[in-house]
Amino acid sequence: MKRINVTLFDETYEKLEVRMKNNGEKSIAHSIRELVDLGLKIEAAAEKNNENTGENDFEKLLEMLKRNLNWALETRLLTRHLVENLPGSSKEKQIDILNKYKESANQYIKGFLGETVE
């Protein structure tokens, strides 16, 4: 096994310490080796995928995100229009409905981005 010296930013080192403790690893060096191995495997898989498909996955991901955000915006605008034109409803009820819809949309986006949903 080869030895090297690596200088890390304090924030990166702290994240590695937390990862090491959470995974029950004995050393930060072991964590770094695992992360490097994982990164190399992901890079190799991405190269193989690009060779097989001939398409850029990043561009496909951007297109998917664009469609999803367009859908979310169109849905929100339609809901707002429908709520504002709801016959016989008070302003307070309209605001309450829109606030609930806003919270639901925010939770959806957090889930889509992989953030913790409370």
Q: Characteristics of this structure?
A:
118 residues, mainly alpha, 4 helices
3D architecture notes:
By secondary structure, the protein is an all-alpha fold. Helices cover 76% and strands 0% of the residues. Helix 1 packs across helix 2 and helix 3 packs antiparallel against helix 4. The two termini are 45 Å apart. The model has no long low-confidence stretch (mean pLDDT 80).
Topology:
Layout: H1 10-23, H2 28-53, H3 57-84, H4 91-112
Main beta sheet: strand number and arrangement?
A: none
Total DSSP helices: 4
SSE class: mainly alpha
Give a count of the beta strands, DSSP E runs of length 2 or more.
0
| Rounded mean pLDDT score | 80
Q: In one word, what is the shape? A: elongated
Q: Over all CA atoms, what is the radius of gyration?
A: 23 Å
Uncertain residue ranges: none
Percentage of residues in helical conformation? over 70%
First-to-last CA distance: 45 Å
Strand content: under 5%
SSE sequence, one letter per element? HHHH
